[in-house]
Write a structure and sequence with these properties.
This protein has 531 residues and is of the alpha/beta class. It has 2 domains: 234 residues, FAD/NAD(P)-binding domain (3-Layer(bba) Sandwich), CATH 3.50.50; 225 residues, no CATH class. The strands form 6 sheets. Strands 1, 2, 3, 4, 5, 6, 17 and 18 form an 8-stranded mixed sheet that branches. Strands 7-16-8-9-12 form a 5-stranded parallel sheet, with helices on one face. A 3-stranded antiparallel sheet has the order 13-14-15, with no helix packed on it. A hairpin with a 4-residue loop joins strand 4 and strand 5. Helix 1 runs parallel beside helix 11. Bound molecules: NADP nicotinamide-adenine-dinucleotide phosphate. The site of NADP nicotinamide-adenine-dinucleotide phosphate (NAP) has 24 residues, from helix 5.
């Protein structure tokens, strides 16, 4: 059996993988996509829980690389639902005739770098083997879900599901007693929808999060038309913002406003909805007093919405400043706790001890019987998807072996010792802080340009130098140092044993990031060893 050799193998057929296959094929490369799921979409394929929708605006959160594709798709809602996003990603895949480049239900299981041939040797779950000059990981930052590790789950006689891998079949909620464990972004979206159908819903909360209204509504078609008139220009404008989206950073600190002005600004943001609440005052991410005022505004909203003062207080976050963990964006989340069929159980002081045959048992012995358990426990962030692949360099090392004190990357794209190995939207890039459609487009293009540069100059291998990688990691740390985010327990912070934290994404802003990455490309890739 011969092993087919490709120029680029792209792992993952979510938004990054879809664009990568298109872009690299367009530049004349022989490409292959590997995808574990039976369809495209990545997180939007798997996260099909009730209420799942994007919490950025859909007219921003989509591909911008093609004027035609932008013109041909009309979003129906400001915050597209998961089914609409999945339809869109399938539409783009078919419109560009990419499906035939992808092997579905095929996991990459091992990748071994062969320095002599300057190729990666790949093994897959289907038994097929491939070789490739470049390996591009489009595996996502939040794609490897945390498995429920509760004692006794095997003995549970009811049904259980995960938001992150919601089954592609009807999950009966109506007339059932349902438990949701977790209160992050996924749960906050699912809880109001489940509550409307369940006989009773019990939410098990360990840490309350701040949540703001999405104010979802029909898509702004006038804005869509404005963008359609000049997609390439808007793409450039988005690349020149802080998050590659239309969330703009304020220039004025809170001290520039009087009390009435502060409250008016907060109220207006609450009523327009979305992530802007994290970016209302220029000093909100650094000044704890300013941050407290914004946090207290949201806590007061919770107190005003939730009728039972004890429940309201339990839902108020006090353990972290607002915006230091990702803000949740909801539709009717807090009001859901006013329903008679919804109860909140605080499992911070009284954790879940085990799952019994009939339900959930807390440490104090209290037992809550349920027919369906929904786990919304989050993900192994950033490199979780790599953990199920045996990636080895010539020395037999894995890419994260040297990352015990935090990720070591150059531009969040590549790591020393791993030639021709690229990761899209990786640690050390704006990553989860940016609009991931445009972040992926930027990285795919950057890697494509580097491959073109190598091919036209006869280079076969590329990897960052240790020095450049250290300089970049120091810069990533330097821009994060003044922010209060580092203090919070948060999936974006790598915590060392001595308690010190390393902020994983690049928080200096998308434009500042892209300016530096553009300069590296323009100057012939200093900081990379080309051989
Ligand atoms: P998450 O924010 O990490 O939330 C996981 C939840 O599970 C937390 O409330 C956590 O409590 C709880 N938990 C974990 N282990 C537990 C245990 N043993 N007992 C009780 N509770 C436990 O995960 P997520 O909600 O899936 O969201 C992850 C990220 O995905 C988001 O931050 C966002 O970036 C992305 N996301 C985006 C969207 C969107 O765009 N619409 C929607 C969903 C998710 P602790 O906080 O105490 O650990």
């Amino acid at each position: 059996m011969t092993t087919e050799t490709f120029d680029v193998v792209v792992v993952g057929a979510g938004m990054g993988g879809i664009y990568a296959l298109h872009r690299y094929r367009e530049q004349g490369l022989k490409v292959l996509g590997l995808e574990g799921a039976p369809g495209v979409g990545g997180v939007w394929f798997h996260n099909r829980y009730p209420g799942a929708r994007v919490d950025l605006e859909s007219v921003d959160y989509c591909f911008y690389f093609s004027q035609e594709i932008f013109n041909e798709w009309t979003w129906t809602e400001r915050n597209a639902s998961q089914p609409e996003l999945l339809r869109y990603l399938n539409f783009v895949t078919d419109r560009l005739d990419l499906r035939r480049l992808i092997q579905f239900e095929t996991w990459l299981t091992a990748a071994q770098w062969d320095a002599e041939s300057a190729e990666w040797a790949l093994t897959t779950s289907s038994g097929a083997q491939f070789r490739t000059r470049f390996l591009v990981m489009a595996t996502g930052n939040l794609s490897a879900a945390r498995a429920p590790a509760f004692e006794g789950l095997d003995s549970y006689k009811g049904e259980w599901v995960r938001t992150s891998h919601w089954p592609d079949r009807e999950v009966k909620i109506a007339g059932r007693r349902v438990a949701v464990i977790g209160t992050g972004s996924s749960a906050v979206q699912a809880i109001p929808v489940i509550a409307e159908q369940a006989e009773h819903l019990t939410v098990f909360q360990r840490s309350p999060n701040y949540s703001v209204p999405a104010c979802n509504r029909p898509a702004d078609l006038a804005r869509l038309d404005e963008i359609r008139a000049r997609v390439p220009e808007v793409r450039k404008e988005l690349f020149a913002t802080v998050g590659a989206s239309n969330v703009m950073l304020p220039s004025a600190p809170m001290a520039d406003y009087d009390e009435a002005g502060i409250q008016a600004r907060l109220e207006a943001q609450w009523n327009s909805g979305g992530h802007g609440m994290s970016y209302l005052f220029a000093d909100q991410g650094r000044n704890e007093e300013t941050n407290f005022t914004v946090a207290e505004f949201v806590r007061n909203k919770i107190r005003s919405i939730v009728n039972d003062p004890e429940v309201a207080e339990a839902l108020c976050p006090y353990d972290h400043a607002i915006g230091t963990r990702r803000l949740c964006v909801d539709t009717n989340y807090y009001a859901t706790y006013n329903r008679e069929n919804v109860s909140l159980v605080n499992v911070r002081d009284n954790p879940i001890a085990r799952i019994s045959e009939t339900g959930i048992v807390l440490e104090d012995g209290q037992s809550i019987d349920v027919d369906l358990i929904v786990f919304a426990l989050g993900f192994h962030p950033f490199t979780g998807a790599w953990d199920r692949i045996d990636i080895r360099n010539e020395k037999g090392e894995a890419p994260t072996d040297q990352w015990r004190q935090g990720p070591k990357t150059l531009l969040g794209l590549a790591t020393n010792g791993f030639p021709n190995f690229f990761f899209l939207t990786g640690p050390g890039s704006p990553s989860v802080l940016a609009n991931l459609f445009l972040m992926n487009e930027y990285h795919v293009d950057w890697v494509g340009d580097l491959i073109a540069h190598m091919d036209s100059n006869g280079y076969r291998a590329v990897e960052p130098t240790v020095k450049a990688q250290e300089r970049w990691s120091a810069h990533v740390a330097e821009v994060a140092a003044p922010t209060i985010r580092l203090k919070t327990r948060n999936y974006m912070v790598h915590r060392n044993e001595d308690g010190s934290g390393v902020f994983i994404p690049y928080i200096g802003g998308f434009k500042r990031y892209a300016d530096q990455a553009d300069a590296v490309a323009a100057e012939g890739y200093p900081g990379f060893i080309l051989s």
